[in-house]
Amino acid sequence: MSGNQRDSQHDLILMKDQKQAKLKVEWKASEKASDKELTVLKQSYEEFWKVTNCRSRSMEYPDGVIVTSFISIESDGTFGATKTFPLHELEDNKTFGEVLAKLKPFARSIDREMLSAMITYAVELRKLGQFREIGTEELDSMLGGAFNQSNATSTHRQFENSVIEELSNYASVMNGGYDPKMSFGILLDTPELKRKFGDNTIGVTKYTLMELFVWGEEPPELRKDYKSNSYDMKLNKILQGWKNANLLVKKTEYYRLNEWIKNPCDGVEKERFYIIECPRVYEYIAKGEGVGRNE
To answer: Are residues 241 and 131 in the same domain?
Structure first.
């Protein structure tokens, strides 16, 4: 290999497989792609997609966020449907399959290699400072799932209603009865927990929130791959919206949205819950309507 060939630490490998170019890109975060490498990236998808970046601020992203739009290109060259995602989420491998699934229904062509090249191109544009500045309203409209104050209030009320309807499935920490396999969550009603999290908080499991906001009426067998530490983009937006609206309580580990609760029941040393402010639930309990499992 000549010295010129070694100059770039980007390793761009273009392979042909039944006339389909597949791109594999390896690079360091601090480096910038060359013009030639950017051209190779773009050529791998530009017949089917246009990739653009925008930057804005919002309640969810007070310090600013760069979002990437994938704009489909029709066979006649006109632009079709568009999907937009925060670029930092696209860089997270945990969301890759979810993003691919959202693009496939309307894409003329898309696969893992093509999507990887599109994301890499967007990242390189960010390094070059190439993005359009937009306002908060346009950002919310582009994301479609961005949660403003109204969205947060609406989904939070939906959650409180579900707790009231299923109160027997929420165990009182003070009275005991939490079952990790059966309970939806816990009422944080001991003096110690009230001092730490507030007087009207409930700990809810991720599985419960996935059932309420993500899975809906999906048959149970479609949930077999669920893992408690997996990442779901839709649920994360809801939780982040609650946090920004001071409806989700965080006291430790600010890079995570849930908290450890110690000894939620006999035999369980600790378990993670999302801690949610639920004053209407405690008002309901105070009226004698119900006090959770093992009242």
So the answer is: no
Q: Please state whether the predicted TM-score (pTM) of the whole model is above 0.70.
A: no
Range of the domain at 113: 3-143
Count of domains forming the chain: 2
Q: Where are the alpha helices (DSSP H) in 198-247?
A: 206-210, 233-244
Spatial separation of the C-alpha atoms in residues 99 and 14, rounded to whole Å:
23
Counting as low any pLDDT under 50, the low residues of the chain are: 1-25, 145-146, 292-295
107 and 29: one domain?
A: yes
Provide the CB-side half-sphere exposure for 247 (13 A, CA): 24
Dist. CA 57–CA 62, nearest whole Å: 5
Distances (CA, A) of 207 to 2, 64, 201, 210: 55, 31, 18, 5
Q: How far apart are CA 99 and CA 90, in angstroms?
A: 8
**How far does Cα 180 stand from its chain's mean position?**
24
